[in-house]
Design goal:
The chain is of the alpha/beta class. The protein folds into 2 domains: 203 residues, 3-Layer(aba) Sandwich (Rossmann fold), CATH 3.40.50.720; 33 residues, no CATH class. It is built from 8 helices and 7 strands, in the order βαβαβαβαβαβαααβ.
């Protein structure tokens, strides 16, 4: 399928790295006008500077881990774009720790961005999305569909995104469609820098991450971006409340 989003107005949170960066690039190639969110002005400017079609890219920096930040980011994007057709909530954080080593600050850090930020960005965008009969795509995880050891907080945040997506889809239909994508392990700079390269045996850990899925590899960020764009198309116009698993089969037996 060749995606055409010419002149569609899109906001991507967490759009300066990993999956979010791939989503920004994919919408950009498809002709959309994209507001790019990242935590800092510098990261947003660097991302925009690396893409073509810069006249269709708009900076929307800010921290979506706080309600005021969500309101500023979404409000600024709507003003820059002149409205909003598609909101993609990609901003996310994660860390694996046993329950005994997890404290309130870790809980707050993960839940604030992954779950609270997703909810309040949706809330801030509702007026514009209702007007455009638009679409929300949330990035959850296969960890939102099944449990993983040493990941209780992360699983709680992503499980919340999955079920919140269902609830929002019911509440906002028929005006706004709400779906989520549930990736497995994705070969991003964050996975390599924060996990693989920090391990005592990087090659062993990389092989473990690849073996986790029956497809015996990690996904590429572009494969996740393709799923996001599909959910935003008119061809997916009867899809709402869904959790699309792009996980190489990791959840098939659960």
């Amino acid at each position: 399928m060749r995606f055409d989003f010419t002149n569609k107005r899109v906001l991507v949170t967490g759009g300066t790295r990993g999956i979010g960066k791939a989503v920004v690039a994919a919408f950009n190639r498809a002709g959309a006008r994209v507001a790019v969110n990242g935590r800092s002005d510098e990261s947003v400017e660097k991302t925009i500077g690396a893409l073509t079609g810069k006249d269709r890219l708009f900076a929307a920096p800010g921290d979506v881990g706080a309600v005021a930040g969500c309101d500023r980011v979404v409000g600024g994007a709507i003003e820059a774009l002149g409205g909003l057709d598609i909101l993609v909530n990609c901003a996310g954080v994660g860390m694996d720790l046993p329950i005994e080593e997890s404290d309130e600050s870790l809980w707050d850090r993960i839940l604030n961005v992954n779950l609270k930020g997703t909810f309040f960005c949706c809330r801030a965008a509702l007026g514009a999305l209702r007007e455009s009969k638009g679409s929300i795509i949330n990035i959850a995880s296969d960890a939102g569909l099944m449990g993983n050891p040493n990941s209780s907080i992360y699983c709680a945040s992503k499980g919340g995104v999955v079920n919140m997506t269902r609830a929002m889809a019911l509440e906002l239909a028929p005006d706004v469609r709400v779906n989520c994508v549930c990736p497995g392990y994705v070969d991003t700079d964050m996975v390599r820098r924060d996990w693989i390269e920090q391990d005592d045996d990087p090659a062993r850990l990389e092989q473990m991450l690849c073996d986790y899925a029956p497809m015996k590899r990690m996904a590429t960020p572009e494969e996740i971006a393709g799923a996001v764009l599909y959910l935003a198309t008119v061809e997916a116009g009867f899809v709402t409340g869904s959790s699309l698993q792009i996980d190489g089969g990791s959840t098939a037996g659960h």
